[in-house]
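Notes to self after the Tuesday call (sharing in case useful).
The group wants a holo model before anyone commits to mutagenesis around the pocket. I volunteered. Ligand is adenosine-5'-triphosphate. Logging inputs and output together so the record is complete.
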Amino acid sequence: MLEACNITYAHPGAAPLYRGFSLSVAPDERVAISAPSGFGKTTLCRLLAGYERPQKGEVLVDGEPLPKRGVCPVQMIWQHPETAVDPRMRMANTLAEAGEVPDRLLDDLGIRRTWLSRYPHELSGGELQRFCIARALAVRPRYLVADEISTMLDAVTQAQIWRFLVAETERQGIGLVLVSHSPALAERVATRVVRLDAEEATFPSSLS
Ligand SMILES: Nc1ncnc2c1ncn2[C@@H]1O[C@H](COP(=O)(O)OP(=O)(O)OP(=O)(O)O)[C@@H](O)[C@H]1O
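Result:
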């Protein structure tokens, strides 16, 4: 289980985005986080994946805090893949940093082998995002956090990527947290939607 337990978090000098916020995600769930712009969806993703630490409360995976170093069991996929890779590294080397990437994964993601020798700026956004997903999966995470990962992609690429992610997370028993501004996408992909702004929210004490 991935758990945010009684989290309070405020950006420096700002009011808390959440107070005593809790959320549990099971490995067989795909949970969509929904809220208007600025409510703290991306911040929540960063907390769940260990990029930020809450001022109060904790994030646990199977009852254990996220590790301070080493590979995090919660891997994040970012909205802008070009900011998530080293522009000076060829894609083969970027992938190699994550360890062994099975050929099957590359095939299922539609990654052509000719792309491996390219630099990030020589790939489209959709092609690059496929590499970022492969890299996140290569470290064998327990959970994936996908923050607006397909917003800038065309409809066909979007559908391919989500079809892959649903199948792969089911196959590997990886829990998924996703943020999308598209209610239609969230409804199609998610097994559960959590609204940060609803009065009868799952965590009514979460709003500051
Ligand atoms: N590093 C930061 N320092 C200070 N404030 C920040 C920082 N990052 C985000 N914020 C603020 O925290 C609030 C929540 O931001 P966040 O990006 O988490 O919201 P969001 O719900 O993902 O928004 P959007 O839907 O527009 O992407 C916003 O008011 C934002 O301006």
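Two things stood out.
The longest strand covers residues 2-9.
Helices lie at 41-48, 91-96, 103-108, 125-138, 155-172, 183-189.
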